[in-house]
Amino acid sequence: MPEERPLRADARRNRARVLAVAIDTFAAEGMSVPVHEIARRAGVGTGTVSRHFPTKEALYEAIVRERVGQIVGDGRALLEHGDPAEGFFAFFRLMAEQGAADRGLAEGLAGVGFDMEAAAARGGYDVTGVWRELLARAQRAGAVRGDVEVADVKALLSGCVARERSGPEPAARERMIAIVRGGLRPTAPA
Record's Gene3D superfamilies (predicted)? Predict the structure, then answer.
């Protein structure tokens, strides 16, 4: 297999410009925006986009790796939080806020058109692992019901994000997070 040569300065600039435009465009409009529109907005040809990102999925995967790296880092930091419940719910809030601000990320979280988890894993980021650890800590502390699974948490997050599909509504997000928090609280024995 031939060695990859480093990109020329102009090719690095074009790649960075395409990636920045794609991040902004997918965040604002979702993943349905065609690649030729990304190229137009970046001021390059579709061939330039294709040289760096052979498919739309490859472009989105590059975005996911960049964004999810930060999110996973934030989640790992929350594992060190002294209060396991606050660490878990802080991560839930972070994910809900990110999903509300970024339509493409919200679609990825919901599994619409792109397997965000697989892309993150290929980049070395284990989002599910962070969720699993945060959830287990909160459950051991008695702050979250013991019968809750990571898939349940993701479904609840998708519901919170879906609530803001037509645009950010911080008051609605807070209400949804409060409902989720209440619903995940262990029930008192009868």
Answer: Tetracycline Repressor, domain 2 (1.10.357.10)
**Least-confidence region, from 50-59, 72-81, 102-111:** 102-111
Cβ atoms of 104 and 22 within 8 Å: the answer is no
Task: Say which CATH class 61-184 falls into.
Answer: mainly alpha
Q: Distance between CA atoms of 96 and 14, rounded to whole angstroms?
A: 32
Residue 181: closest CA among 189, 190, 173, 170:
173
How many Å apart are CA 176 and CA 161, to the nearest integer? 9
Residues carrying CATH 1.10.357.10, the chain = 61-184
Contact 33, 25 (CB under 8 A): yes
Q: pLDDT at position 116, please?
A: 73
Assigned CATH for 1-54: 1.10.10.60
Are 145 and 186 contacting, i.e. CB atoms less than 8 angstroms apart? yes
Q: Which residue has the tokens 């052979």?
A: 54
